[in-house]
Amino acid sequence: LRLVAVLKAVLEGEKAAVLKRDHHLPLSFHRRQEELKFRLGLQRLQHRVHEVQTLRDGFKGLCHGDSAMQSPTAGAALQELPTLILEAMKELEAAKQQVLKRIQIWKRQQQLAGNGALLEENLAPLQKRCESLVEVYFQLHQQVMAASAELGSELLPRLLERFSEVLSSLVKR
């Protein structure tokens, strides 16, 4: 039993030394995982924007025919468009939350750097996130404005309000 206790103490000491030396490894892994989640969310959002554009283009093509609104496909496209836009809006807001979380972490690191902690000074990944999100934001906004006639007078003002909230929270933070 004494041998087991000595070995356990030695192994715990080695474990503590390894964790102290390589404590940055779990953080970098977490950061990579977070970056992958953001990229996946952004790709999903870009796909939604593309779906909205495709649906709108198909709707415009159907409306220019002889039986414009009598086609069942046109009616289905008209009903599916608001749903797609609302889903894209939810994904935009989720991506915005991820960016704001990363900005908050960076701000906290700046505060801790004032007390001597290490500060990652490379802002390129954070800037790239913001730029990517704003680019998709404007694409979705453009699609919503182009589809304003199909969205109606109730949904459009709510969407525009959500758009302004997304952009203002990004700019303010």
Automatic annotation (TrEMBL):
UniProt keyword terms in alphabetical order: SH2 domain
Family matches, as CDD domains: STAT6_CCD
Domain STAT transcription factor all-alpha: 87-146
One matching Pfam family: STAT_alpha
Gene Ontology molecular function terms on file: DNA-binding transcription factor activity
Transmembrane helix keyword on record: no
Gene Ontology terms describing biological process: signal transduction
Protein name: STAT6 protein
Organism from which the protein derives: Bucco capensis
Primary gene name: Stat6_0
